[in-house]
Amino acid sequence: MAKRVLLFMLAATLVSADGPVLKTGQTQSYYAGDDGTYQKGLPRSYSRTQSGVVKDLTTGLEWQDEMVNDNNISWHDAQTYCKGLQLDGGGWRLPTIREWRTIVDASQGHPAVDPVFLNMQGNVNYWCETTAAWDSGRAWYVFSQNAVEGINSKTATDYASVTEMNVRCVRESGVI
Fold first, then answer.
1. Residue 112, strand partner residues
2. What's the CATH class of domain 46-172?
3. How far apart are CA 119 and CA 63, in angstroms?
4. Is the Cβ–Cβ distance between 88 and 51 less than 8 Å?
5. What is the pTM (predicted TM-score) of this model?
6. For residue range 4-43, what is the model confidence (pLDDT) as tens digits?
7. What is the band of 99 on the pLDDT scale with cuts at 50, 70, 90?
8. Which residue did the predictor score with more confidence, 104 or 39?
9. Contacts of 99 (CB under 8 A, 6+ apart)
10. Is 99 helix (H, G, I), strand (E, B) or coil?
11. CA dist 55 → 59, 107, 147, 148, 175 (Å)
């Protein structure tokens, strides 16, 4: 009995750790069985505070939506920036790659996020907390124009001198 309870608790933790499955925003089907075919998942729902914090009502995450002046920032400096951010009481951190995926909206472009984000640059790479599994000196990023993901050196401030590395902070809802 104890093994069943432990297994149930572990399974519940894994399910909740991944969060809800959200609609991707893709409406056109490019091949059978893709997101455009089924268009399943929970609808996205956001609210915005007067201070510019976007609250994701589906995932419970809160996102910073103010312009960051330093657009060429290393991964370490991005972490330091988020930890020091005092917007609406602090508690901010760099988002994981999974958290970034929760705000990507394939029906949008330039940037590929919901229009509730007013200060999202469309041609910028945004750092993620998630480190590359095979190289601890590299971390994931998301290209905001079309939500393509990639990996870059944590010390890099640009990607092939074409686009900038930037920061967008996140926190769990209810942090004061």
1. none
2. alpha beta
3. 11
4. yes
5. 0.74
6. 333 323 333 333 345 556 655 555 666 666 555 655 566 7
7. very high
8. 104
9. 59, 61, 128, 170
10. helix
11. 9, 20, 20, 23, 12
